[in-house]
Design a protein that fits this description.
By secondary structure, this protein is mainly β. It has no helices and 13 strands. Strand 10 and strand 11 form a beta hairpin. The chain is globular and about 40 Å long. The chain starts with a strand and ends with a strand. The relative contact order is 0.30.
Length: about 130
């Protein structure tokens, strides 16, 4: 079992950048696929990005492709989400989650069924993009 904690959220102006961090305890994150998800006020949770536990392959939701980058630092037991060119519609609570594989990914989005197939979730960090 792994416990996940997100950090790095905050208030940023449109066009700005933030880097979110996900750290784990109880187990090393390199055993797991790690995904980032977000939930905006009044909306369903959606998948943002995922990095696999095998070859480190990544995928992204179409809404963030080209702006967000997911990465791992196994030495620090961390997974990051670098978010550039932020838009007001990126405002949400961002969660990292772990499982043995990334969520089903099809045509630029993630299948949300059964909690995206993720087993362990952090409590989230809030990102607000506003001028």
């Amino acid at each position: 079992q792994v416990q996940l904690v997100e950090s790095g959220g905050g208030l940023v102006q449109p066009g700005g950048s933030l880097r979110l961090s996900c750290t784990g305890s109880g187990s090393t994150l390199d055993l797991y696929a790690i995904g980032w998800f977000r939930q905006a006020p009044g909306k369903e949770r959606e998948g943002v990005s995922c990095i696999s536990n095998g070859d480190g392959s990544t995928n992204y939701a179409d809404s963030v492709k080209g702006r967000f980058t997911i990465s791992r630092d196994n030495a620090k037991n961390m997974v990051y989400l670098q978010m550039n060119n932020l838009k007001p519609e990126d405002t949400a609570v961002y969660y990292c989650a772990a499982s043995w594989g990334c969520p089903t990914y099809y045509s630029g989005s993630y299948y949300p069924g059964d909690n995206f197939g993720m087993d362990y979730w952090g409590k989230g960090t809030r990102v607000t993009v506003s001028s």
